[in-house]
């Protein structure tokens, strides 16, 4: 059977480097990554799974907060990802959210965000690195715990926003040492996990790479359950 097709969301004009790292992780995990971005035709019905990637901030208007002119947002990407998440929910597709993607999952399910984490977590050091320099604590017995097999993990950090009010049906399953939300999941139903860090950059960490492998495995399982054969060749 051909590889399950996983959409990776990104911005219209930039984010290629984030896309390539996700492509690499999904390819190594046995998936077939396709870039999903505004301004380019896409067929959601062809997808077997969804990865909401990193990028600009989510518009605060989506969770009833005021828009800060100093914050860079991407409304057309917001709309694309909300549509993709709605489609994934209807078809019961597996979903992985990375950084902005984790935040978008939370907003989709009715949650809200801290617009500036350093205004809330004043003791947290300002950290922006692709290297695993942040410690996160994972909830024992959670889906994330079973995948990572690491309850005290070292991860990277490239964000200045985080989950505030948790969306309906979601649970917080990882926090850093300052209490900041670092991981969310839906405990019931098909695979749906959001992590605040970037596992695609932790290419040598087997636990982090299992996030992609499990996404691909569930995508293949859901496709087989639907009785779908190999995907047609793309024109």
Short account of what is shown:
This protein has 235 residues and is α/β, with parallel strands linked by helices. It has helices at residues 16-28, 75-91, 100-108, 117-120, 143-148, 206-225; strands at 5-9, 32-36, 49-52, 95-98, 113-114, 129-138, 152-157, 162-163, 171-176, 181-185, 192-195.
Write structural notes for this entry.
The protein is α/β, with parallel strands linked by helices and 235 residues long. The chain is built from 6 helices and 11 strands. Strands 2-1-3-4-11-10-9-6-7 form a 9-stranded mixed beta sheet, sandwiched between helices. The protein is globular. Residues 231-235 have low confidence and may be disordered.
Strands of the largest sheet, in order across it?
2-1-3-4-11-10-9-6-7
Radius of gyration from CA coordinates? 17 Å
Helix content: 25-40%
Sum up the overall morphology in one term. Answer: globular
Secondary structure: number of strands? 11
What is the mean pLDDT? Answer: 92
By DSSP (H or I, 4+ residues per run), the number of helices equals 6
Please trace the helix and strand order, writing H or E for each element. EHEEHEHEHEHEEEEEH
Share in β-strands: 15-25%
């Amino acid at each position: 059977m051909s590889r399950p097709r996983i959409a990776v969301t990104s911005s219209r004009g930039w984010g290629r480097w984030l896309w390539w790292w996700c492509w690499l992780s999904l390819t190594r995990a046995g998936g077939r990554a396709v870039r999903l971005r505004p301004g380019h035709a896409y067929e959601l019905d062809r997808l077997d799974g969804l990865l909401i990637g990193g990028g600009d901030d989510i518009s605060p208007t989506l969770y009833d907060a005021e828009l800060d002119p100093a914050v860079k947002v991407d409304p057309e990407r917001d709309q694309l990802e909300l549509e993709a998440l709605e489609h994934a929910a209807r078809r019961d597709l597996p979903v992985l959210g990375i950084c902005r993607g984790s935040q978008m999952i939370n907003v989709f399910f009715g949650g809200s965000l801290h617009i500036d984490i350093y205004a809330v977590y004043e003791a947290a050091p300002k950290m922006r690195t692709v290297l695993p320099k942040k410690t996160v604590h994972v909830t024992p017995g959670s889906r994330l715990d079973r995948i990572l097999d690491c309850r005290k993990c070292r991860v990277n950090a490239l964000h200045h926003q985080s989950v505030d009010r948790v969306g309906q049906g979601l649970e917080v399953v990882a926090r850093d040492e300052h209490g900041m939300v670092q991981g969310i999941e839906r405990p019931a139903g098909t695979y749906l996990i959001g992590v605040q860090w970037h596992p695609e950059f932790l290419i040598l960490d087997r636990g982090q790479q299992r996030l992609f492998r499990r996404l691909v495995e569930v995508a293949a399982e859901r496709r087989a359950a639907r009785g779908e054969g190999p995907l047609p060749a793309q024109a």
